[in-house]
Design brief:
About 35% of the residues lie in helices and about 20% in strands. The protein is of the alpha+beta class. A 9-stranded mixed beta sheet has the order 8-7-6-9-10-11-12-13-14, covered by helices on one side. A 3-stranded mixed beta sheet has the order 3-5-4. β16 and β17 form a beta hairpin. The longest helix has about 30 residues, at about 35-65. The protein is elongated, with a radius of gyration of 46 Å.
């Protein structure tokens, strides 16, 4: 019976996706609405980025065109404030450090390069477009004349900077030459040079601070040893026929300078009373003051004097000073001749200076 029984098949329909069995109806997914404000803001931002890129490219193009243009190339340099600075040296340095046209050149870097020139203390550079630079210079002021080994006299300023050679066309007054400065670039050498400058300034004040000025009688100043300052006086019949070296030590310059000149003057005048006060009793010194080559006033209570060794024997015949060699022949005193020659040169220089000054004053009056 079971074999003959028919099997009934029931077909059940599939449920559609999204159908709600409870509601018996299907629901479709809802789409989100478009945010047009966000779209517009993104488009606006993108346009700004593109515009900035275009402007940058345009700027680079224009910069390249301007920097390579002959219109902005340097054609003229106006230099002011320079009396000793070589204008050709300045122009050469400027052109060497130009980076393209005037537009692209760094004025700050150019000023630093100009200040590497010894005479230039400060430089101000102004750009005058399209093709001109204006350079205003503040020069260093020369303070003293220093002489180095195997070198001519050079000017040094108050910072100890070596400036340049002495020029007779620019420098009328010649101060005493100074020895002892170092050309080394080490910090220790620079510090010592600065100390030498300070001592020189104090010494020059001491020489000319009183009623009697002594600087015009000083030929050289030795600052090699900062603890033992020395002067070399000009050879003169007023004090000595030979150049005299004066040791001053490192302090009380004015008092010691006055003492040294007083002693030399007393020796010249054979002032026995004054010389006894200074404890100068050596007969050889008293008889030959013109042979004095060295005097030390480092210890004022004990003045030390040295005589130069005479090459000739000095004799006076009928009031005339002459020299006699060992063979007995007489010759003119070489030191006396040099003094006369120096005196004539000095007097001639003074007279020329006076005449020139009078001529200049007349031109001013006219």
């Amino acid at each position: 019976m079971m074999a003959s029984e028919k099997v009934k098949q029931v077909v059940v329909p599939r449920k559609k996706s999204g159908s709600d069995p409870k509601l018996g109806a299907t629901t479709k997914k809802m789409k989100k609405p478009t945010d047009w404000a966000l779209v517009r803001s993104r488009l606006w931002l993108g346009s700004k980025v593109m515009a900035a890129l275009l402007l940058m490219l345009l700027g680079l193009f224009l910069y390249d065109q301007i920097s390579s243009s002959s219109v902005f190339q340097l054609h003229a340099i106006e230099l002011t404030g320079g009396r000793r600075v070589n204008s050709e040296e300045v122009e050469k340095l400027v052109r060497k450090n130009l980076s393209g046209s005037l537009i692209t050149t760094s004025l700050g870097d150019l000023q630093k390069e100009l200040q590497t020139i010894a005479w230039i203390k400060k430089a101000e550079v102004t750009r005058i477009l399209p093709d001109k630079l204006k350079i205003r210079i503040e020069e260093r002021k020369p303070l003293l004349l220093a002489r180095f080994e195997s070198h001519t006299a050079v000017w040094v300023d108050e910072d100890g900077v070596v400036l340049g050679d002495y020029e007779s066309s620019l420098d009328k007054d010649i101060p005493p030459l100074v020895y002892g400065f170092s050309r080394s670039s080490s910090e220790a050498a620079k510090a010592e040079n600065k100390e030498r400058v300070d001592i020189y300034k104090k010494l020059m004040v001491a020489l000319d601070s009183g009623p009697i000025k002594y600087s015009n009688q000083v030929e050289e100043i030795d600052l090699s040893n900062l603890k033992d300052v020395r002067l070399q006086l000009i050879g003169s019949s007023k004090l000595s026929r030979k150049p005299v070296e004066v040791a001053l030590g490192n302090r009380d310059f004015r008092a010691r300078i006055v003492l040294a000149f007083d002693v030399l003057d007393a020796l010249r005048r054979h002032d026995q009373a004054t010389l006894r006060n200074y404890h100068i009793l050596d007969e050889e010194i008293l008889k030959n003051p013109e042979l004095i080559s060295f005097i030390s006033v480092v210890h004022p209570s004990q003045v030390a004097i040295k005589l130069a060794k005479p090459i000739f024997d000095l004799k006076t015949v009928d009031g005339v000073r002459s020299t006699e060699r060992k063979d007995g022949s007489s010759v003119e005193n070489a030191t006396s001749t040099k003094v006369k020659s120096d005196r004539q040169k000095t007097e001639k220089a003074k007279s020329e200076k006076i005449v020139k000054a009078k001529g200049e004053s007349r031109r001013v009056e006219d």
